[in-house]
Each structure stands twice: as structure tokens, then as C-alpha cells.
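Notebook, bench 3.
Goal today: get a predicted structure for Integrin beta from Phalacrocorax carbo so we can plan the truncation constructs. The sequence was checked against the plasmid map this morning, with no discrepancies at the termini. Length recorded as 754 residues. Pasting the sequence as submitted so the record is complete.
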Amino acid sequence: CIKANAKSCGECIQAGPNCGWCKKTDFLQEGEPTSARCDDLAALKSKGCPMEDIENPRGSKHVLEDREVTNRKIGAAEKLKPEAITQIQPQKLVLKLRVGEPQTFSLKFKRAEDYPIDLYYLMDLSYSMKDDLENVKSLGTALMLEMEKITSDFRIGFGSFVEKTVMPYISTTPAKLRNPCTGDQNCTSPFSYKNVLSLTSEGNKFNELVGKQHISGNLDSPEGGFDAIMQVAVCGDQIGWRNVTRLLVFSTDAGFHFAGDGKLGGIVLPNDGKCHLENNMYTMSHYYDYPSIAHLVQKLSENNIQTIFAVTEEFQAVYKELKNLIPKSAVGTLSSNSSNVIQLIIDAYNSLSSEVILENSKLPKGVTISYKSFCKNGVNDTQEDGRKCSNISIGDEVKFEINVTANECPKKGRNETIKIKPLGFTEEVEINLQFICECQCQSEGEPNSPACHEGNGTFECGACRCNEGRIGRLCECSTDEVNSEDMDAYCRRENSTEICSNNGECICGQCVCKKRENTNEVYSGKYCECDNFNCDRSNGLICGGNGICKCRMCECFPNFTGSACDCSLDTFPCMASNGQICNGRGTCECGTCNCTDPKFQGPTCEMCQTCLGVCAEHKDCVQCRAFDKGEKKETCSQECMHFNMTRVESRDKLPQPGQPDPLSHCKEKDVDDCWFYFTYSVNSNGEANVHVVETPECPSGPDIIPIVAGVVAGIVLIGLALLLIWKLLMIIHDRREFAKFEKEKMNAKWDTVS
């Protein structure tokens, strides 16, 4: 926003969608240019501009016509006129556009059932199409019967073409002009294009008039079909087109001439795209060249005509390439004698009606448009594919989301109109574009205001817009005075040769400070001597991130001080675990403890490598005062009177953690090996308080009788166990010896017998 260097509110809001203009009269600091009023909204608020003084107009949309799409089925009793059928919604709306801010609206399309159709059959009547003409002669009534399945309102027309009536496309000898065919063939004179039958609902009339047609002839293979297509497209009144579905069936067995080919016949004037039918005959084929493909695309689109190319197999590839260049067109393969033309037309119509493609009229300069489609079966697309939906059946509804964005304001901010329509349909959405190029406060401006140096400008939106030839914040100078040396003297500080401290320009005797690449860095002051980026830094941040840089000096936030606002006044980081600042052993400076007692160190002066703990330090004094014993018993009254002592009955009565004063719980041994318990605390006045349990816990002596009894019992049990083990071993030994004896006795008995 600042880089836009906006001199007025209008210029500011055109710089971007997030730019606002502060109209508060005293908003600018000394030395700041008028363009400093333009900034993003957050920056303006941070600089002290109230929301009610910020001009920030927003775009909007307003629907003017929003008729619902028509729900109607074939065979319904109601017969609506084509203009009463609605297939696209909304129909008309207004978009107010601010530069860079897109406006979005939804478009709904529903292909109506039983929608009227106009079909014009355009046929090549060169000699090679002789057998095809015989089959087309009965096309009218047969096609009527088939189309009744699709619509109850169908009309058909017929036209024919051959070639331009000049050499070298036809023979211009008198005999060949009368009958271009050879032998005894009876052919009609060559012609460029003839409208045989305007659109009619009478199928019999089609058969009758087409039955009277005769083949003609020409010399070259490509035909003049493009001349005929152009006339069919632009001669709406003669052809009889209605504002309904318009189908053009182009039937041929040859290629085509296009723009530039007319030079062969000495024709160099480009096709003018206008209707030149006289007595239903194209009369300017010898005067205008063939139309280009792009020209045909334009005219077919303007007149909402969908083209079906019914061509023989030989030229399929050529016409498929042509189809890719002509939106809403289809190609069908024509049999050698056109016997399949009805089925070809039905198939091509179904293919064309199954796809909807949106197109928009030419956009004003600086306006862009984008589409997002919401098609059947959850298929969504964006960019170019967002313009279309495929595989749509009659009666299906699809939606599109359309974004319109203005990237600049048109000259004089005039309104523009664009139109969006589905290709091949006459219905369209009309969008009136209204551009927000000025602020509301500009309409309230005061021309020749006294606030602008004796009426030399218009006071609007809190600033002066100078008349031609005047400059300065208050229009106080003329352009002739800008380079005056006398003026420069007002832009120098006392005892200085620098104009505006080399940080600005002297305009009308006033310094206008220059801008920095970083828009957050600003020069200010009467002589541009101040800035907001040359203050002391801490941790790489201006004013340590804890203050605001004003005129090269830091203004610190509360609880911070120092040249770089790097000194915190908060004492919380200095708080020791006992609740004292720096443990009472130092001072808190900039959030850090400076320990005054050399024995103590650490972030809160609590670490002492050579010190006893609180309990050990006061153990002897507590022992002598509470129990009249210990090492300091003799000197107790001199060394141990620095604390207040209170006796309690048990450990439960000792002060517990959670009280305001820091507290230490102690357990120590006295000279008799008894445990005594006490607490040590220091209150806010620095007074030490000791609470001691009045009865130490002394360990009782051992009970001799149980010990002796236990020892004796143990010895007896061990002796009994040993005896049992010995007895068991002896039994085992005796049994083994007895068994051995028995065995030897048996052996001796055998010896006696033998």
C-alpha cells in the first residue's frame, strides 16, 4: 500500500484490496507525505487512526433478475413459448468491483425437456452427391417422426451449395454455365449458395421442394461450403431462426475452401460476415473471399448455432480437426448414399446436448474471470475445464461458481456490461460491472477550500488535492517555486548544510521524507532527522522487541528500561526457592541476580559450595536452647539467641509447607544419638523462627532374653537336624551292608551243593 505512493483516497483503494486511507485530519506526523495516509488496515490502526476514520469500501453483488429454471416434461399440457422457458439462473445481476477483490456468484443451468429445435440441412449439390440427393428428398417427414420423440416443437429447412461462380472453380464457358455436367446428364447451373426452404414445421413441404432440386457441378474438389455456412449463420431473418436450439447439418463428401483461396479467382476482399441473399441466392461470392475458420467460429457462436458435419469416411480426419476449432460442433460418418443421415443427426444432437460449455463476451481491460464447475456425480473442475460439464441428460441440473476480478479501474470509472451464456443457447446472464474507483469521502470534498492555502485545492478525505500547478501538502507552492534556493533554506537544520538531513526532498520549503524499501521503516521529523529503525538493538531486535523506536530513541514498554529496552524490571526471575529476592544474598538487576555475598552464586544466589545446610548450620544452637546439651551448651546464651524458638508436642504440630514464609524441615542427631526435629523459617521482617519437637526420639536398648532364647533355640534345632541327617545316612548304609551279606550267603550255598 505504501509503495503505491497514493496521493488521494481513490488511488489508495486501487492499490490493493487490503489498503485503507486514514481521513483523520491530524493523522500525519511532521515530515510525512500525504501518501502515508494509505496503508494496510492493521498498520493504520496501530498508528492511531480510528476505524471510523478509515476509508475501506468493499465490493458487493446484487441480483436483479432471478427466475427459477423451468421444470417441464415432453407431452405436458402447457405449451410455453420459447422465450418463456428458462434454462439458466440468475438472468441479470450487478457486481460492484474493487481492484484486486474478486466477487463470486453461482450460476445454475438446467437443460429443459421438450425444448424447441430448429434444424437447417445444408447440402453439397456437386455432381458427386447425386445419389445422396435421392435419399435426402424424403428426409423431411422421416426426420419429423424421429424428432417428435425429443421435442413437440420442431422445424426444418434446406439449403444447398456448390462453389464460387468464377474460374478456376467452375467452367465459365456458356455451355458449361448452362449445364456443367458431361454427357446427357441434366444438371442445374452452378451457384454458390441457395436457401431452398426456410425453416418450417411442414415436413411434406421439405420433401416437395427438395425433390425438385438438381445436381450441379464444378471443377475442383474442395467446395465452397464456408460461404454457405456464413450466410446461414448471419441471415437469420431469411432462414427463419428462432431463439431456440439451432442445429446446422452440413452434408458433403469433399473438403472446403477457406480464407485466402479466393486469390485463385482474383478475389482478395476479406469476407465481411454480412448477409447478401437476394431472392434466396448468395450474390457476392465473386466479390468476397471465403471466410476464415476463426470468422466462422465467431459468427456461429454469436448466433448460437450448433454445427453437425455429416461427411463421408474419406474426409473424417479433416472435419474432426475442424470440429476441434469450432465449439459445440460434432462430426458424423455419412454413408456413401446418405442413407444413415437421420440416425447420424439424432446421435450428433444427443452428443451436443449432453455437454454445456459457458462462454463470456469480451471482457473490459483489466477484468478477469474464472470458473469452477459442479457437475454430475461429484465431478468438479477449475480453469478452462471449469467452464463445462459433460454427460448431462435432459432435465439434469448443474452449477458453476464464477469469480470476476477487476485488476485496474477503467478510464473515468465508467460501468461495463459483460454476458455469459452456454454455447449453442440463446439465453444469457447479463452482468453489470460497477467499479469502485473513488472513496465516499471524495464526494464530500470541499473545492477551493481555505484549508488548502487560500483555496488552491480541494480538501477531501482529510487531505488537500491540489489544483493544477500547485504542490505541497497544503498546496502552498506553485510548481515554479519548487527549485528555489530560498525555499531550501527552510529545509536545513541549524548549523547544517544537509537538506532534509539527506533523508528527503525540500518541496515548498518543507521536507517530504523519502521512503525506504522496507515499508515498515519510516523517516519523519521537520527535517527528516528522525526514523524508527536506527535505535539500539538487543538480540538482533530494535529496542529488544520490548519498546518502540521513536526518533532514534527507544520508548520502552512497561517493566522494561535501558537504551535498548533490554533491562527487565520484573523480579520474578530473581525469586529464590525460599521466596526471597536473590535469596537475600544479592540485588536483582534487569531480571538477573547480582550476588553481593561472595560465597553465594547461581541465578538466584542460592548455591554455596562451602556452606552448611540450614539444618546443619543451626543444629547445635537448637540443641543447646531446647535440650541444654551439645557442643554450644556453654556458649549458648552468647551465640544462639538470633532466632525465636517455640516448642511443640509432636511432629504433627510443626509448621507445614504452604505458609507465606519460606520454611525448612530438619531432622538431626544429638550427642546421645537421639533424633530431634525442628523447622527453620525467616519472615518478611527478616526474623528467624524455630519450632522444635520438645521430646527427642531416642532408640531403646536391645531385649536380651528373646535374643538368648532365639540363639539357644537355633542351636538346638540345628543339632536335631544334624542328628536326623546322621541317622538317615546310617540306615541307608546298614541296608546296603545287609543286602551284600545276603548275596554272599546265597553264593556259599551253591558251592556246598556242587
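DSSP finds 16 helices and 42 strands in the chain. The two ends are 139 Å apart (CA to CA).
Flagging this for group meeting.
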